[in-house]
Records
---
Amino acid sequence: MRSLFAKRPARFVGVSLLALFLAGGFMVGPALWDIWRAGFFHKVSQRDYQGDSRSNLEAMYRALKLYHDSEEKFPGAEGWMEEVERRLRVYDMKPEETAKKMIRPDLWETSGRHGYALNEACAGKYIDDIEDASSTLLVFESQLESRDAAGDPDKVGLAPSGGKVLGVTATGEIIEFEPR
């Protein structure tokens, strides 16, 4: 006895491939549609950074906390900005715009000056080893404007016209501090 499709094997193959294609489309189609709607295939526009010293300190603290969580200590005084900068990158901002988070806003127009310093008393330490971490400054506005500046907030804290220094504590609170 001869098969029904013996005379027309090409039609059988064509119909089989069409059925397979449709079945695959019904399974994969909704997933592709969801991915498209979520914007996965859309080009992301790059935005400019608009922040103040407070938002810079918050961003630096988040990056320092990420470093602390992975390395179980804050970075050492030497090279701390590089460690922070790696953890500040975002997909919708150009690298030079992201770098502004590491520069005091009044220094954005100058080259090579940063204006923030790491407290040497916190450098390379685990947060629980810092005495009174909730009031100890981790990063603060500084007179030292070089990259990777570090020092004692009482000695190198920037106090414009006898005012207060803005800084972030080892526990993440933004505080105003008056250098002695």
---
Amino acid sequence: MIPFASPKSRRRSNKAAHVALAALVFLTSTVINVSTGHAGAKKDDAYRPPEGSGSTLHVPGSAPATAVLHDSLGPAVESSELAPVMAGDGSALPYELWRGVDIPGFEKLISEIEIPPRSPALHDLWKRLITSNVTPPAGQTGDVKFTALRLEALYRSGLVSEAAAELANASPDDPVVALFAARNALANADRNKACALSQHVVGLKADTPKVVIAQAALLNGYCAAVSGDTAGAGLAAELAREAGLQQTPGLAALDAISIGVKPAAKIEGRLGLIDYRLLEAAGAPPPASDLDKAEPALLVALTNDSASPPDLRLAAAEAGAKLNGVSPDALAAIYSALSTPQHVESLLSGSGGLAGAPRRAALFKAAEAERTPMKKTRLIRALVDDARANGLAFPVMMMLARTTAQVPVQPELSWFTETAAEIGLVSANYKMTYDWVALSQAASPDGSGYTHWLALADIAGANIEPQGQHLAELEVLAQHSRFSPDALNRLATVLDALQYMVPIPLWEIASRSPQPTTGYLPETGVLSELRDAAKKKEFGHTVLLAMKALGPSGAEGANMIALGDSIRALKRAGLEPDARRLGFEALFASWPRTAIN
């Protein structure tokens, strides 16, 4: 099956405590593999290039005059195709966000998806979805249980500040709510508040699920340990075992504290926040090399904890940024605060002895401070290259948008065009991309320059008029084998899903190339359910199903069929800007680049 086939062939008191408790049990007993503010301009910024350039950037919300799209006239408009009423909470999501989803369905879906999503585009959408202030999914006592589910999802996503805002409106006298709040305070590196709240995590009823009792025991054991109560730590370990808790690093730490020795537990599986704090209290904090097993909330806690060693904070911030648990702005703040000053030439050559995270932090701080354009661009480029090689390309490019915008667009810096174009696209600062590409066009004998980057900007949502005008450049690149077979098929899939009129030669070249069969493909029925939810304008349902369909690696690791259907569904549900960013993300890593610039 050709995944980009012709469009015609395809188309969320005691009763409150009980439901909060049920939500905590369900989610804490489910293994969820974990995977940030956007720097730069907003996605809906519009820019109009100078007259005579042949292009304009279209004002969001109005129909382009000469868009190159499928079905430009189309059938009569149905009620399901009308623009939705948007929520007034700043989420840029519809008011009827949870149409078609009840509480059990919401609970089931968030137990099946990767949170937080590894995909920056999906993470941005997920964060807006889970923090939106709209009517919750339908269901008995829906608002109470939904709040509990949302708190757990926020915690697992590393969104501890957002969870704290939600908890500010809840009563800490309820034991289960107190457990949520105490754990969240630990994630915010506030031990005193966490232990004050833990005093309310008592009096749990006899029918309280054992997993909750075990978590409460670990928390109370931690507070006993840090207050010097070794007997209390030992009692907490016994209570946790009685609740059925198997041997964990946290439990081993409690045992060691109770007898005055250091634990020697090997970290297996995920490393939780309370586990880490218990090991720390026992005098055996895990090394930075174990941070790849850490949950996002722990990484956020270590990043924000000024008492943690600088190298640990740096490592935690980078690990958190890779999971979208630490935002680009937070990573930039850590880089600026913890960087080691070094001479520019030593930094660029790598001869100064810095490597890894310390070198990246120093490069960022130096690039921010440098006033000479040539040196500034070299520092930016060195940091981008280092970040790309270490899985940090997106967060680092987002946080470099501000300093890149300070670089003058001038011929002497034309070698920097492609790097600036990339940073502009990743940060959604499309004017930056356009200005640097325009510089390359002026210097090119045939006026082409790096115009294929404008095609990617068009796909990403830059509102260039007329849409699709730069697809011809992609055709030329395809004819010269600048796209791998996988990248070419991925390009055709994205263009078709966004309803571009794919140039026939480009389509023919893609059709002749080997069809990829790899990538994540969800179980049977998920894509059909996704298409149905999008058609019915079930916005939240569509987003959750798209996350499920794309799998743990997001757009880059998805099968072509799942990728195309997910983009198509988001667009049809009225979330076109997000669909476009997802398409951009699927193409960015494999986009043709110059070998040397």
---
Amino acid sequence: MAAIFAKHRLRRTCDNHRKVCTCQRYEAAYPLHVYLHVLKLCLLRDGRRSVRYRCNTVNIAQDVLCRRPGWVEAKENEDWDFIWCDLAWIRDNSNHLYMEEHVRINHFRNQFELCRKNLMVKNLKRHRKNLEKDFGHTEASKCDFFPRTFVLPNEYHLCLEEFKRTLGSTWIMKPAGKSQGKGIFLFRKLKEIMDFKKHITRSDEQRDTSQVENFVAQRYIENPYLINGRKFDLRVYVLVTSFVPLKAWLYREGFARFSNTRYSLSTIDDKYMHLTNVAIQKTAPDYDPESVRKWTVQHLRRYLTAKHGRARVGTLFEDIDNIFVCSLQSVQKVIINDKHCFELYGYDILLDENLKPWLIEVNASPSYVASSREDYEMKFRLLEDTLNVIDVERRLTGKEKRVGGFDLMWNGGPVHRDDVIPATCGSSPFPSNTHLGCVNDREKQLRRLLKPIAVKRGRENIPEKRQ
């Protein structure tokens, strides 16, 4: 009843254009959705009464869109202001889309330049080479965050030479265009890579009718950082709203995914030991969905800080920030920039025993299906804050360094913190505006961000526009 009463008061306040918005009186008593209702009940800045959206995925994104105040799902033949689509839709429709100024879409046309494993490696290698040519070895070494990698079948002979030079080491083979751990295997023997080469090689006649599938052969990180004897990787989220200039936001939350089996190099055939993907782990015979092995990034950061100290962990997270920036810069000149587009990337990062982070892959369509209630709530917050940053309603000034759980880390150059030692995260050795693994007090921040807008909208005497 209290929420209904608050909504009624807020509606009456906005409708009567009172001088003082009612939401000021309920700041401590009511949650964030009360403020969002104020913004829903007022006109959008350009006079539209609602945002029409389309969504062709069935996951948490659909839940976020249908619950967003003022947003309505567009009917089959209606125009839309916003679409959340899968990669197949953007591939099939991007070349013949006409979009008005305000329309937003959740993928860049050639996002695959960063997300296909073979193209990611090609772009990173080129970027490193250019840095070394222009600025020297020290600057180029910032790109040394991905293992030695070869694209097959084109670089088969180079891979073979490296394999012979490092006999006894472990390698991992991955299909370039697949996800969720499909088609991945580890190998150590020369015979295995030679047999594999025969499998993927086609005659010239076959190449004319069927494209050869690309694979990447990569040095396996044999010394991963272990917690309770288990390997894990990190899934963290970066939102890119522009590539020219590069504008990227880092989300404060994420999670660590643990393997189902204790780690050992004595066997390389156990995928439940070596691959941490949830899609792989849930096929384990003893998989229990009620005890999914995940930690929040906040939990992991606290654990590492207690074990290694704040300064060492601060350096680790600074190195992770570098991975985001360098990888995005590597595709900055090849991504087709479009003001209508944005991309929410899921980065997979592995730590080795020396606390060095390694980039495993980047996903343009990370999973928005939940494995637990906590997982659902985190992804709901992530997607809700993505919409807050994209700001289809045009409520923001464009000068914000933080929106909800997102912190602006790059805007044509590095973005620095206003507070070098943030109270929510403790002392930090680097001044960049990133707070991965820190407290995500997003509701408090959004209230503070949206309250002046709600007050202003409540005071504005805008005549109601009929549809």
---
Amino acid sequence: MPVDINRLTEGWLELESDPGLFTLLLEDFGVKGVQVEEIYDLQKSLEGPVYGFIFLFRWIEERRSRRKVVEQDESFVKDEEIVNNIFFAQQVVPNSCATHALLSVLLNCPNIHLGTTLSRLKMHTSGMCPENKGWAIGNTPELACAHNSHAMPQAKRRQDKNTGVSTGRFTGEAFHFVSYVPINGRLFELDGLKPYPMDHGPWKEHEEWTEQFRRVITDRLGMATGEQLQDIRFNLMAVVPDRRLAISHKLTMLKTNRQIVLEALQQLVKLSHQDGTEKNSNDSDKSDKSYDKKNKTDDENVPPNKSEVDESSSVPTITVERNNDSTIDTEESATSVTSGKAESNMEKVVMCALDYATPLRIQTSPAHSSSSTDTSSEIGSAFNSPTQGK
């Protein structure tokens, strides 16, 4: 489908100064990894890398005259070689200042993914004068379509071809966009309604270029809010790297770290479980051994009962002889006491049992236990019945 060049240059619509809208416009241009955000506080330093600033202000008659009459105190760069090597385009298409401001930032930054359309535009306009670059922008259908797709629904085309500013939504007031970009160590102001770019000089050593911009824009706002004008209607936006990419990268790193931590915890739990099992097994073995040892010690310390004495201990045989050569033999089962104590008890029993006038002769000899379990009864029967004998 053929493109009507005249319709392109006359059909650009007004855009709102909204950072979200500008970000969408960048995406439609084919730019990746860039977004636009609004600046609310100029008193504190700006954090993070910034590609450039876009400043919106109300256009008044005193400033319109600067397009024709160049004041002496403005630091214009008139060297054609410098100007042509900078992407600085004069605005020849009405209502296109928003796109001009964006392109002035994007095409002067070397580390931005421009996409097919802007890369082709930058290559084809390399070395052109500012006016021809302005016509190249107006004659690029992809830029015009992307620009108009984000226009306000109630926006109307302006018929005044000599005015390149945007009109206010309700009052008919005109607003204009300009760009501030660092180029070759110096701060440049790129305004498509001025014949040349303005050089605001280098920034100080060991400081960011944004600090130089803060000083310049603060001075400019002081002039704009003087007693005569009392105009504080302006908007400041920054072109910065896409925060979503950084946040997505951070989220990916957090997920990776979380997975690593979970795997490490699982390994620790597994090792702890194994150590606990081994410890319980060792404790069980130690407990069993301790229990066996304790039982063995108790068995050694506890005196045996009578049945054990009857079965295990050997009782000495006591032979009692009288002068008439009669003898009495007795077998006794000792209790679980020491042999010395058993003999002492036995002698005591014998001495108490045989209390006769006739002296006795006692002879002891080892003998096997009898079937009787009552030792005292046997001993008592032997000594209480001395008349019984062989």
